[in-house]
Design brief:
By secondary structure, the protein is α/β, with parallel strands linked by helices. It has helices spanning 14-31, 47-56, 106-116; strands at residues 2-3, 6-12, 38-43, 62-72, 75-84, 94-102, 122-130, 143-147, 153-154, 170-176. It is built from 3 helices and 10 strands. The strands form 2 sheets. The chain has a 6-stranded mixed beta sheet with strand order 5-4-3-6-7-8, sandwiched between helices.
């Protein structure tokens, strides 16, 4: 498939993603029943995943967003810049951090440490995609949609230079075509 001069290979269709999001929502609902968690989405990439996830959970909950910047094109800059912090007080609350993708693990480690500084009851992490071959984590990820190889992916909220987020499926970005 070629979109806007990008060569894309489908990895996960919208139907497959919907099924996986429903499974994650059920697991979260079972684990957090009567705990009134707050979901914190990591912008911009997680907004579609978080919206679909929230429509499928069966528990009372709240949501908020945090925004970071750590990529330039298809490469991590190695530094994390906080663009927008959460506005909710998460002290003594159950927090579910929602990521679109965990790549190197630097961003999720930064976020987990930052949120734990506010003394929540718990911090659970859910991600739609995990790259286990490159993620350098010393803590578990609680809810994982799909494990993928260390290739660059777009669609379903994931972008390349702020483009291609609108695609319903998740695609491997194979490069530009002329």
């Amino acid at each position: 498939m070629i979109i806007n001069k990008h060569n894309l290979t489908l990895l996960f269709s919208q139907d497959v993603i919907d099924q996986k999001v429903a499974e994650i929502a059920k697991d979260i609902s079972d684990q957090f029943e009567k705990k009134d968690p707050i979901f914190i989405g990591v912008l911009n990439g997680s907004f579609i995943f978080l919206a679909d996830l929230l429509r499928k959970v069966t528990i009372d909950c709240e949501m908020d967003f945090i925004k970071l910047h750590s990529y330039d094109g298809d490469r991590s800059k190695g530094t994390i810049q906080l663009i927008k912090d959460i506005s909710a007080d998460i002290t003594d609350r159950h927090v579910i951090l929602v990521e679109d993708i965990i790549d190197s693990g630097y961003t999720i480690r930064f976020l987990k440490d930052r949120l734990q500084g506010a003394r929540p009851k718990s911090v659970a992490i859910t991600t739609l995609l995990l790259k286990p071959d490159v993620a350098q984590l010393d803590f578990p990820i609680d809810f994982i949609g799909f494990e993928i190889s260390p290739e660059f992916v777009v669609g379903y909220g994931l972008d390349f230079n702020q483009k291609l987020r609108h695609l319903g499926g998740i695609y491997r970005l194979d490069g530009r075509v002329s």
